[in-house]
């Protein structure tokens, strides 16, 4: 019993012939997609580390994304076409073998990068406070929630590995059915993956630690990646490339919402600063003071007045003690 048992000679020879005549256009596109997947996740990793918190990222988004990625990676590994490509590496050149396995590498890199998000989400989860989205509904995300998410992802990964290994050793002819089950599961999880994140972003009114540059790269990239996998695996590989077609649509919705909130918040902040500046100028003119702008954009006012001075001058107590008169 081995990983390649259960493959028909016709499928194996067909895949080998295809690998020996690679499409250089599809090869170039596949390499660009592989690099794009890796680069697209770096802004998200950096944003969480730079902010020092994973606030704004839904635990259920991380849970569904990681489990979906695990199913997608296992799906392409046990797919008959992928196993045939691996088997062909014994007869084709190293270059042709590497070109034929780019599809597997793409899904593997995507799974790895999202798993890094899971680790960063757990490490930088705000332990000193509870993330309250809606006090009326009293829905809270605590450190216990983050640990539970990581534990469930670990259990799911071990279960997929155990079942796949058992089928390879005892029922290799059923690996095609198992691949479709994994693909359908990955598609369902990916379909609902962005729903809790969309809901959370809508309620808090900002993206938090969620990276907009990541989504700007991944949203169009999902459609390109889906098309590349479809060209490589054909219609029978729908359970693999269909996942990324669905995620591209939902991620586009989240991206649009994130951009809307970013523009809205920056506009509100700019308007608030202008209004505050006008008020400060009025206070200065009324108090015969002068003002300067500090390095952080705040206003420093001389003659005892500042932007934090009370509105009613009579209510402000002087912090200076009058010097005793000399006789």
What report would you give on this structure?
The protein is mainly α. It has one domain (about 10-265). Helix content is about 70%, strand content about 5%. The chain has 10 helices and 4 strands; from the N terminus they run ααααααββααααββ. It has helices spanning about 10-20, 25-50, 60-80, 80-90, 95-100, 100-125, 145-170, 175-205, 210-235, 240-285; strands at about 130-135, 140, 290-295, 300. Strands 1-2 form a two-stranded antiparallel sheet. A two-stranded antiparallel ribbon has the order 3-4. α2 (about 25-50) packs parallel to α6 (about 100-125), α2 packs antiparallel against α9 and α8 runs parallel beside α10 (about 240-285). The chain is globular and about 80 Å long.
Characterize the main sheet: 2 strands, antiparallel
Q: If strands are numbered along the chain, what order do they take across the biggest sheet?
A: 1-2
Mean pLDDT: 77
Shape descriptor reads globular
Number of helices: 10
Q: Structural class of the helix and strand makeup?
A: mainly alpha
Percent of residues in beta strands: under 5%
Q: State the low-pLDDT regions, or none.
A: 134-138, 289-327
Helix content: 55-70%
- The arrangement of helices and strands along the chain is HHHHHHEEHHHHEE
Number of strands: 4
**Rg from Cα:** 28 Å
N-to-C span: 109 Å
Q: Number of domains in the coordinates?
A: 1
């Amino acid at each position: 019993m081995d990983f390649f048992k259960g493959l028909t000679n016709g499928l194996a020879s067909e895949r080998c012939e295809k690998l020996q005549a690679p499409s250089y256009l599809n090869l170039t596109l596949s390499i660009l997609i592989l690099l794009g997947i890796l680069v697209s996740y770096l802004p998200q990793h950096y944003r969480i580390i730079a902010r020092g918190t994973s606030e704004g990222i839904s635990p259920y988004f991380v849970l569904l994304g990681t489990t979906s990625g695990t199913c997608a990676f296992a799906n392409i590994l046990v797919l008959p076409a992928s196993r045939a490509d691996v088997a062909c590496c014994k007869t084709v050149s190293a270059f042709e073998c590497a070109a034929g396995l780019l599809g597997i590498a793409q899904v593997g890199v995507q799974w790895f990068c999202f798993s890094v998000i899971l680790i960063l989400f757990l490490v930088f989860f705000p332990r000193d406070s509870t993330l309250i989205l809606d006090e009326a509904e009293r829905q809270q995300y605590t450190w216990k929630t983050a640990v539970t998410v990581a534990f469930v992802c670990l259990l799911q990964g071990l279960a997929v590995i155990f079942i796949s290994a058992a089928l390879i050793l005892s029922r290799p002819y059923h690996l095609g059915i198992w691949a479709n089950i994994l693909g359908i599961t990955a598609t369902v999880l990916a379909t609902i993956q962005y729903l809790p994140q969309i809901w959370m972003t809508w309620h808090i009114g900002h993206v938090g630690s969620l990276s907009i540059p990541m989504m700007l790269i991944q949203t169009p990239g999902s459609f390109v990646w889906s098309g590349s996998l479809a060209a490589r695996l054909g219609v029978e590989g729908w359970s693999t490339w269909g996942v990324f077609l669905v995620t591209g649509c939902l991620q586009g919705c989240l991206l649009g919402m994130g951009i809307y909130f970013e523009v809205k918040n920056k506009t509100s902040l700019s308007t608030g600063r202008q209004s505050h500046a006008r008020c400060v100028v009025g206070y200065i003119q009324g108090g015969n003071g002068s003002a300067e702008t500090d390095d952080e954009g705040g206003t420093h006012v001389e003659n005892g007045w500042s932007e934090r001075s009370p509105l009613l001058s009579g209510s402000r107590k002087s912090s200076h003690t009058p010097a005793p008169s000399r006789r």
